[in-house]
Sequence to fold (223 residues):
Amino acid sequence: MQLIDRLSTYLNSLLNLILPQRCLSCKKIGESICEGCLLQLPKESSPYGITTIFSYSDPVIRKAIWLLKYKGGTAVVKPLARVMHDRILEELSDTSEIMLNQGQKIVIVPVPLSKERLKERGFNQAEIIAREIVIYDYGKSFVPENSVLTKTKHTTSQVETKNKTDRMRNLRGAFSLNHPELIKDKIVILLDDVTTTGATMEECTKVLKRAKPRKIIKLALAH
Ligand SMILES: [Zn+2]
Fold:
């Protein structure tokens, strides 16, 4: 990331502190996405066994993800993270997984970026979402583990690779597992911002399974 970009990101976060937050959708002063607009956002079903919360085709979600990805917008993620948090607890209580979990914390593993991409962007947007979920949760049920997966191979941008078979081939061996003991016998949430073909999540799941977690839930903010 260029110094000027870092400076502009820093200034933006500073401005966010001073200026009142406005809803991305209705422009009302308050939250980055107000409660009313949040309820109206179109929800997305779960393709490829991935729990996705919002639809990427929605302009508000697109804008929110753009702000998150390229500006490191934490404020914009807060309301979305709340919805993700509640949804995941709901899903787990439906299957009585939480009870079987015996008070153990659910581990959130954000999909990692390669060193090159991290340097270019300055942060990992999936880590920001994970952090917001944990903050909203007050650390009661979730714990983030950012080091469990690393992306050791720099792959071409997923957007440029068209079909799933190509993407899977592109990603083979791209991720490595560290500290398997952190997720052994635990419920793991593999978290990403956007999923398109599900290839990244599939490859990450394959790697995570080597550590023998109790269950892996694939969760994406949008599809
Ligand atoms: Zn609104």
User: Anything to note?
Assistant: The beta strands are 51-54, 106-110, 142-144, 149-151, 175-177, 187-194, 215-222. Residues 3-222 form a domain with the Rossmann fold fold (CATH 3.40.50).
